Amino acid sequence: MRIAGGGLVRRWGGRAVGLAITGVGLYIVAPSVLSLFGAWPRLADVDPWWFPVLVVLEGCSFAALWWLARLALSAGDQQAEDQHAVDQQPPGWGTIATAQLAGNAATKVVPGGAATGGVLQARLLISAGQPAAVVASALTAIGLITTGVLLLLPVLTIPAVLIGPPPARQLELGLLVSLIMAVVIVGLGLAVLTWPRFVVLIGRGSGHLIHLVRRSVTADSCAALLAAQRDRVAAAFEGRWWAAALAAAANRMFDYAALVAALAALDVHARPSMVLLAYVVAQALAMIPITPGGLGFVDAGLTALLVLIGISPDAALIGTLLYRLASFWLPIPVGLLAWTGWRIHLHVTRPSRTDDDQVP
User: In degrees, to the nearest 5, what angle opens at C-alpha 279 toward C-alphas 50 and 291?
Assistant: First the structure.
């Protein structure tokens, strides 16, 4: 009985703690979520044509992720073919899109966030015939390169912040800013992937700065860690570095452009560089594994940051709601439909599969 009891604790104890933390987190952010939904009727004041604009921008952001996944899986399949002399075809666009949409929806609704979504995405790709090792390597590389682009954005905004505000109606320049930033990110991404010495120099410089606040971190250790992560990404996108850098930049910049469009729909005047900083912080809040997809934390944080950069509280609230509607809420039912379609396809094509092979 003790052994059985211990097994139950090991199996369900961590999940119970995770659910408890999620419940506490949702309780804390409930006022901000309710306030956000309270502004829902105000969306009727937005010109209708802005809604398809937001959907297209977010669709392009998702498509960039699909492209990135196909690049990583194609490179992994080629390496597997070279090593094991097997003819392994990369998954089709439909499979990749279905896996990403389903995993993204799980990230937003299931406790565990990105970890749960990543597991579901991997299960779908593996069930489509992709080797488990290739899938794990590809998803890890995708996470590293997209996070690297996110961390790079605040550094790139420093010159714009120092230069000062542009002319009136400067928010409309946000779409141009996103294009310029994408070009710069692609250039820096290629430098990182093709010039290891560049990564070592960045790592040593960062290590010296981190050492000032954390004595256990040295320039050499930081450079070694950064170089190791660079090698993993470079290996995952071997021969496709420029395309990987372009896809990673497009994923973030189209998402940022959606936030700019949401604010422009309200005729808001703000500096694109400051909106970009607010966007970066909001994306960092989404990584907090307390509530699924950062629910509540992102909404409250983004609204407060937009107010901080000079946008009126009402416009900040409605702009956040409009952006989150396209980037957070709409992909959930789309992802659920993608997962349902995959389960139906799996049941029809493989009716003899056992329950152990099914994704719960």
Answer: 100
DSSP state string for 16-76: HHHHHHHHHHHHHHHHHHHHHHHTGGGGGGS-TTHHHHHHHHHHHHHHHHHHHHHHHHHHH
Contact 113, 107 (CB under 8 A): yes
Q: Is the CA virtual torsion 300, 66, 144, 180 positive or negative?
A: negative
Q: Two tokens at 254?
A: 């189209």
What average pLDDT does this structure show over 255-266? 91
Q: Would the pLDDT of 16 be above 80?
A: no
117 in Cβ contact with 103 (< 8 Å): yes
**Per-residue model confidence as pLDDT tens digits over 331-340:** 999 999 999 9
- 171 touches 269 (CB < 8 A): yes
Q: Per this entry, what is the length of the chain?
A: 360
CB 202 within 8 A of CB 188: no
